[in-house]
Amino acid sequence: MSSNASSMSTAPSMPETAERGLTAAEVANREQNGQTNRVKTQSSRSVGQIVRANVFTLFNGIILAAMVMVLITGSWRDAVFGFVIIINTGIGVVTELRAKRTLDRLSILVASDYVVRRDGRNVEVKHDQIVVDDLLWIRAGDQVPADAAVVETWGLELDESMLTGESRTVRRKAGEQVYSGSTAVSGLALVRVNAVGEHSYAATLTAQAKVYKKTVSDLTRGINTILKFMTFLVVPLCVLLIWSQISAVGGWNHALATGEWRTAVISAVAGVVGMIPEGLVLLTSLNFALAAMRLARRNTLVQELESVETLARVDCLNLDKTGTITDGGIAFSRLVMLDGGSEGTSNADAVRRVRQALYDLANEEQPNGTGQAVLAGLKAEGVGAGPIAARVPFSSARKWSAVVEGSAGPAGEKGRETLWYMGAPEVLCSAFDGDHTDVLDMVNAYANDGNRVLLIARADMADPSAFADDPHLDPHARPVALVLCAERIRPDAEETLAWFREQGVRCRVISGDNPVTVGAIARKVHLTGDRAPVAMDARELPDDVNELARVLEGVDVLGRVLPDQKKAIVRALHTQGHVVAMTGDGVNDALALKEADLGVAMGNAASATKAVAQVVLVDSKFSHLPDVVARGRQVMANMERVASLFLVKTVYSALISLAVVLTRIPYPYLPRHITYIGALTIGMPAFILALAPNTRRYMPGFLKRVVHFALPGGVATAASVLMAAWFLPSTMGWDVDASDADLADLRATCAIVLFVMGVFVLGRVARPLNGWRGVLVACFAAAGVIGLFIPFVRNFFALVVPQGRLIPATLIAMGGSVAVFFLCLWIVPMIWRIIARALATR
């Protein structure tokens, strides 16, 4: 025996058994061979890998290279845009480290002490000290720590719902297998361990679910597409910009001799930085994080920030019955008397006697789940234990239990004692004299409505002690009442499902329980509204994924579903283009949650299930799901709005850069100009707009809609700035090639034009401008103007207050900008539609 085990205190007394268990030498040998119940837990990625994945990104590379180029010139003020790298990277690293910590804690089994039999004695050992071939005692309340075969049993009853999804408890007989992860709810058994650690059933499921999966949102995918496109454009354009700016200052020899190469580099970076929507990447991360914080206040944990966006696209929700629609518990519903009445109409004394008998029948030493529900329900109504002369406990082999009323209880007729039976209706009725078809019809009707039905029968007897010695069913007994129990339905389930129906989300219930029972519960919560839900046994589902997808379109409820089938169902729905969310709480749900676009776990779920889920409802309230989906829709709808705002900058920066290269003019503004203007007309307003209420359901086509909106504003802005850069020098008599003052005046004027166009674009994005949106645009427009008159701001960002000769130049440029803006709003969409129509007809 291991030293750790031997040092434990003597275990509680157990029933007598001839089994002696392993010797100390045999235990030591298995420990040396690694046959212990220890499971290694580590995430799929190390801290270093997570940091590298977030630091070395395409976005960070572009911004860092641009920042380094500016810093080499010594103009650190033009490099402030680089701080976005630190913030964005920090958010990504923190998010994934949080996911890693969750995965590192991944464990299905609850670590606790267990009693094993070794050398003929019962000793307590830790969870990971159990070895192969150990004789293990499984007691009521224990979670089975390893796979094992039953050697001896004293009424062991297991809850395997965390593994199979079926909420009914099961009795295990000698020779049958029990699996790690199931929980003993009543009885006792001695089992022989045959699979430990990573070879156990629970660990096998965990291994499949325990691979890190990064959620890639449609929004993130769209931004990445823009960044990839910009990469192919930025590198050659940056080289061409530097070349054109060197040419503009007199060539390489002159630029190197005079140091004007620095101005050329800064000008080139101004074009490059403007083309990259760095604020959009940052705002996306911040908005996801803020949404996660808001959800956390509603007891909803978002484990991956990008999954917030996935919430907006969900159109198919697969619900696990146990733990989602029901809370996993059983409740005593009512007693139905079989004399033609019910509790409210039958003889009061008869009802009282039946209720007392029901309590006494359920009041065993270790009642099962149904017995516990009956006791809880009757105790709440004031019923207590009565005197019992004899008892026959429930047996899975007999399917019934019995009690004989004690002598101090109500006297039976003619001095005879009353014998009460409770058990499976079909078993009892088949043993009683007479035709009980009507009773069985009632039983089937109640069962089809989602109830668990037991039958109570009574008989008179003269010798209770004889019955205790030879328990049997008296053929003269007669049925007197039905006991109805049902799974407790969450009070918020019906309202929540109604919300999803209104939002166009198709809900299906997928469970390991009997499809008839699941279908009945689905009817109670109006899963499909006024229409009766269509239920199906999962054993009849086709294996082919395309055929499975076709069948699923007409099915609302699936019962007897295996863990692999849940995963296959999600895959089949994906083939039809559905965005699938999956809820669950058991280990059997883990694989399906991982396969789904969005996995939602209940707070009382198994550790493995919570680890693979993107969203965890901490307090297990199904009613939080509408809040979760609504928050996702708000994020996505608003981010689509502000993405258009950022992409306008990308469009006009690319067009201006291209025009600068082709015409070899000095770049019309500095990087610090675009930092100042972008912050006031894009960055800060976008953050506020992203927080606005918005319940619009997200539709595919994010990138197409964003580009369609951004093109007119981008083209108008580029045209306005370029017209000022091309025509103002000749109109105003400025020599921008020879005079630094004239170039500074031109750039200051172009910056004002850029700011005005930015305000116009902001107003277009923020529409309607009534209420707070109009105030928002006005405030940021005013902030931009006020900044011109603050010395520190003006000097830091190289701004100029129009005065003297700049006043007419500014007025001319602004007048032309307004005309160009409204002209582009009309012409560009028309050209876009013509091109789209031409491409569609090809």
UniProtKB/TrEMBL annotation:
Location, primary (coarse class): membrane
One Pfam family matching this protein: Hydrolase
SUPFAM superfamilies: Calcium ATPase, transduction domain A, Calcium ATPase, transmembrane domain M, HAD-like
Gene3D superfamilies: Calcium-transporting ATPase, cytoplasmic domain N, Calcium-transporting ATPase, cytoplasmic transduction domain A, Calcium-transporting ATPase, transmembrane domain, HAD superfamily/HAD-like
Ranges for domain P-type ATPase A: 115-208
Alphabetically ordered keywords of this record: Membrane, Translocase, Transmembrane, Transmembrane helix
Membrane topology category: Multi-pass membrane protein
GO function term, MF aspect, one: ATP hydrolysis activity
Protein name (Swiss-Prot/TrEMBL): HAD-IC family P-type ATPase
